[in-house]
Specification:
This protein is rod-shaped. The longest helix has about 60 residues. With about 170 residues, the chain is mainly α. It has one domain. Helix 1 packs parallel to helix 4 and helix 2 crosses helix 4. It has a two-stranded antiparallel sheet. The chain contains 4 helices and 2 strands, in the order αβαααβ. About 70% of the residues lie in helices and about 5% in strands.
Length: about 170
């Protein structure tokens, strides 16, 4: 498996794994509130906290940041351009060397072949670098999204705690 795919899968696994770990609040009634009253207070505080923060921990993806658009370089050389450019450079160099040796045409042909090979190698190397950069960007996007969810969850918890404390609960 390609290293950039492994890194992407690990990043996604960490992201999904962290989703399962909820940031829970421990709520204790100060004034003997009944179970029904506690459920009603928790529900109302949840609704209020979602309204105040725009974040619902039961659906964290809804308020998460969208992934960034894929990054492409419009000025990047086309694959054919790299091969043709390599052939042209190789032919020119080969012609010079061939002229010195007495056969410019043969030197140009050999140089063009070598240039095509170099251009193809450059193209493959460029594709590998693009794939690795895309995988790193995707992994960073996943980590950024998780950080945004964590921050939103912390803000939601602060709102929840404020609401419940106002209703005479101890919240940790």
């Amino acid at each position: 498996m390609k290293p950039y795919l492994v890194a992407t899968y690990i990043g996604i696994g960490l992201f999904l794994g962290q989703q399962a770990v909820a940031q829970e609040l421990f709520i204790y009634p100060k004034e003997g509130q009944t179970d029904e009253q506690q459920a009603q207070d928790k529900f109302e505080c949840h609704e209020w906290s979602v309204q105040q923060t725009g974040f619902d921990p039961s659906n964290p993806q809804a308020s998460a940041l969208p992934p960034p658009p894929p990054t492409t370089d419009p000025n990047a050389d086309s694959p054919q351009g790299q091969v043709v450019g390599g052939a042209a450079k190789g032919a020119a160099g080969g012609a010079v060397i061939g002229a010195v040796a007495g056969d410019a045409g043969k030197g140009a042909a050999i140089g063009a072949t070598v240039g095509v090979m170099r251009g193809g190698a450059k193209r493959r190397q460029g594709k590998r670098a693009q794939k690795e950069a895309a995988a790193q960007a995707e992994q960073q996007a996943v980590m950024d999204q998780q950080a945004a969810i964590d921050q939103n969850h912390a803000t939601y918890n602060r709102a929840m705690k404020t609401c419940l404390e106002a209703r005479n609960y101890t919240v940790n």
